[in-house]
Write a structure and sequence with these properties.
Layout: H1 22-40, H2 45-51, H3 56-66
Helix pairs in contact: 1-2, 1-3, 2-3
């Protein structure tokens, strides 16, 4: 019984996709976090990096690696 787990760890959560590998799930999670941060900061990468507690350089690397398009 997993009712004591938070939704992010509950394997019965609707966001869980058992067909994705661990690596793919991490990639999707990073993409979601970065996209949300960019939305909250209206596309300002410096502010998004600060919001995510990382550097602009790392954020830019992840944006390119994950294929996130900024408009």
């Amino acid at each position: 019984q997993l009712s004591h787990l938070p939704p992010t760890l509950d394997h019965h959560s609707s966001s869980h996709n058992p067909t994705l590998s661990f690596k793919e799930q991490v990639k999707d999670f990073e993409k979601t976090l970065i996209t949300e941060a960019l939305t909250k900061t209206k596309g300002n990468q410096s502010k998004a990096a600060h919001y995510l507690n990382t550097t602009t350089r790392i954020l830019n690397y992840k944006i390119k690696k994950l294929g996130i398009h900024i408009s």
